[in-house]
Amino acid sequence: MNREHTVRTSTLAALAAVLLLTGCGGSPADDGGSPAAAGAGSGPAPRDSASPTDLEPREPRAERGDDQSRQRRGIRREIPGIGPRTHDRIDPRTRQVFVVTGRSTGSNRATAVLYERDRRIGWQPVSGPWRARNALKGWTGDHRLNDLRTPIGVYGLTDAGGRLPDPGTELPYDQGPAFTPSGVNFEGESLTGAFDHVVAVNYNREPGSTPLDWTRPLGVGKGGGIWIHVDHGGATKGCVTLARPQVAELLKRLDPEARPVVVMGPERHLAR
């Protein structure tokens, strides 16, 4: 956490002009419309998402007792609401998981909690629960361009950026005027400040690049440009939003050495 922080140079002015006509970090061919929140999809696990992997044997849950009693009994906490199938997609080396749980498949409201793994007692919440918003039409396991749904899945969180200066994150942070949306969203709410701070979700993108990078490994038809960004008062086009102080807190807490991921989707899906 004390290593030198990497800050990328801001995007060229030409990119800023294009961004105003597209979604969150989207290319001209991406999920078009206002830059409220770019769409992206799920379907087959993208190469930049956390891959299914064999995990160490899971220990039984404690029925009762505080952290000290758990330690004495050798019982480790797991992430609440995360079932075995979803759990198996989290890299065993990951020590930070940001869980965004939707109320239902069609809901655009969610709850978000950041968990960190303690080697002795397992997973424990360190931030949240926070209110979150997602895409207008809810969630999908097979997102397509412009379908107004947020992708379900487990995805890495490796890159950040925004219009405002770095609030103190350890992630590479790209600051520049290209993170300036214009216009209004679905219900007429202003988009001003929505991209002041963003975290790129590694769905259909190249990890290690600015959130504004247009590379789409799965093809343009699968969307791209999914971000966690500042709430603008309404549903998004595909991104996840949090209140401004919470986005800043998330950025400060995310540690590249902890291999952070976001696990997101409707409650019933994540519980599988």
TrEMBL record:
Keywords associated with the record: Signal
Region feature Disordered, mapped onto this chain: 25-94
Superkingdom field: Bacteria
L,D-TPase catalytic domain ranges (all copies): 110-263
Chain intervals with Low complexity compositional bias: 25-52
N-terminal signal peptide: 1-29
Residue ranges of the TM segments: none
Basic and acidic residues bias: start-end ranges: 55-70, 85-94
InterPro entries: LD_TPept_cat_dom (IPR005490)
GO molecular function, one term: transferase activity
Annotated protein name in UniProt: L,D-TPase catalytic domain-containing protein
Species in which this protein is naturally found: Streptomyces jumonjinensis
